[in-house]
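Input record (one chain):
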Amino acid sequence: MYRCVLAALALSFASAAGAQTMPQQLYLSRNFPAMTLRGQISFLSPPAIELNGQATQLSPGSRIRNQDNMVVLSASLTGQRAKVHYTVDEVTRQVRDIWILRPDEAAKTPWPDNLTDAQAWRFDPAAQRWTKP
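The corresponding structure, as predicted from the sequence alone:
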């Protein structure tokens, strides 16, 4: 009984260690919501951020996901700049969700950087691509 448990633990640790060294090409692609915008962000003293050169704030309960899709705290990113996808809270106009982009995700163009373009363009959720009208 104990050998089975130990073997299962060893196998789970081995697979977790292998996942940390996995090449970037093997990561699963992330699916972004339809109204996700692209921008350049600077993390200031939380909850303050600078998004596309404009000072704004993170909304209460906002989530930031790093390039490995792990949730990170905004305080750990203070002073850093990154290319991101983000969503905006419709009521407060504060930034709600942020995904720090990997190079392959940043290479997908075109991608809207404002709500007007996002409403006018067409989004294919399966391909994760935008097309201009």
